[in-house]
């Protein structure tokens, strides 16, 4: 049984191997997957309202993923967006989240982390950007920050950068089990329920 039988997904990625790999990961869980290799075709499908969730590569030819994200936000289309990039030097996760993306992933992420993010967005477990400030003034955010340990802040930074538990454990020289425990504590303290929500909240609250 499919997890998201009514969900229409667009995978816009110009590298065929990456695009086909993403499609293979999700096609058995969603109602429909369309794919394309350029931004012009992606935007055409989006304007026709044939998409509920779009995975957009930043480096698409014709129209970039960020161009398309801007169009989606300007037109106030009810489409969730996950932004992808293989360029780890030119784009900061913070700027992409602030542009309105629901989630952000480097193409170097592993399949498990990709599916965690995808399922969070597809399942509506990402806090919308406009809700992140509700009930969180400067004082409450400062108080929240005080509850976080230095190690938890390190892990939050890695989550924002798209690191999986394995990558975080390697970067910090600790076990994956320890990373998972830290993430459970972080989620409880910040009242978030997915890596995408954690990343969006951390950026909005200037935790990283």
Outline the structure in words.
The chain has 208 residues and is an alpha/beta fold. Helix content is 49%, strand content 15%. The protein contains 10 helices and 5 strands. Helix 7 crosses helix 9. The longest helix has 15 residues, at 176-190. It is globular and about 45 Å long. The termini are far apart.
Please state the structural category.
alpha/beta
H and E order:
EHEHEHEHEHHHHHH
Number of strands: 5
Radius of gyration computed on alpha carbons: 17 Å
Shape: globular
Show unreliable segments: none
Strand order of the largest sheet: 2-1-3-4-5
Residue fraction in strands: 5-15%
Q: Output the number of helix runs.
A: 10
Q: Quote the distance from N terminus to C terminus.
A: 39 Å
Q: What share of the residues lie within helices?
A: 40-55%
> How much is the average pLDDT?
87
Q: Report the biggest beta sheet as strand number plus sense, adding barrel if it closes.
A: 5 strands, parallel
